[in-house]
Amino acid sequence: MQQVRKQLVHEIVAEEVKQYIRMKQLKKGDKLPSIGELALKFSVSRTSIREAMRHLEAIHFVEIVNGKGILVKDADSHQIQTRIQIENEKTFLLQLCDVRRGLEGRAVELAARNATEDQLNRMEANLKIYEQLRILNEDTAKADLLFHQTLYEASHNQVLCKMIDSVYDSFHEFWQKPFGIKRIFEDTYHLHEELFLYVKEGNDSKARQTVEKLIDVVESSIKKLF
């Protein structure tokens, strides 16, 4: 039987918040209502609002600042949004892997040519945090996300970065918590380390080959899951 993915509450709320920002014509730096006010406005729990805000923050749509609240961050940018309905989730995920091969492969090639010293330092720092959390068997998702965001930023191609962000925006739940399972993919830290070293060396072809190996692992895990 084919499985149909249900849209999660916080995903629905995130879309509603986006619409609210556009309807109110809010700009970068404008403040959103509080968590409590948003919960009342959208008739959902505070937990759902917090999850929606974390999601929107991860894709740079809002920014949560201590002492200031929730601020609009990037609502004016041209974002490529996708809404694809595919009933067979295995097909959905495997097709997404093909998209990732193209987008992320090109991004790391450019990063190997264009990464600045600051970007390399940030990638290395996030990689160290990733490794420490992995050893402690703690959640590595945020460190992994920051590593990849800096890596794609280093491509210095904003359109490409936005396309990758759009893929993450639409389908990130599959990578983080598919079907309530926190981790389904095999450990890929060694490949992240390898990828960083090739980018640092400026070896664009090897960097792209490492992305291919990373996605091979993801594909293998998807096939095992189903």
Instruction: Give the helix proportion (percent range).
Output: 55-70%
Q: State mean pLDDT (0 to 100 scale).
A: 82
Q: What is the level 1 CATH name of the largest domain?
A: Mainly Alpha
SS strand fraction = under 5%
- For the biggest β-sheet, the strand order reads 1-2
**Topology order in helix (H) and strand (E) letters:** HHHEEHHHHHH
Number of helices: 9
What is the global morphology?
A: globular
Q: What CATH architecture of the largest domain do you see? A: Up-down Bundle
What is the C-alpha radius of gyration, as a whole number of Å? 18 Å
Classify the fold: give the CATH topology of the largest domain: Four Helix Bundle (Hemerythrin (Met), subunit A)
Q: Unreliable runs, pLDDT <50, ≥5 residues? A: 1-6, 77-87, 177-182
How many beta-strand elements? Answer: 2
Class by alpha and beta content: mainly alpha
The CATH superfamily of the largest domain bears the name: GntR ligand-binding domain-like
Distance between the termini: 12 Å
Domains counted in the coordinates: how many? 2
Please outline the major beta sheet. Answer: 2 strands, antiparallel
Pfam families: FCD (PF07729), GntR (PF00392)
InterPro entries: GntR_C, TF_FadR/GntR_C, Tscrpt_reg_HTH_GntR, WH-like_DNA-bd_sf, WH_DNA-bd_sf
Domain HTH gntR-type: 7-75
Protein name: FadR family transcriptional regulator
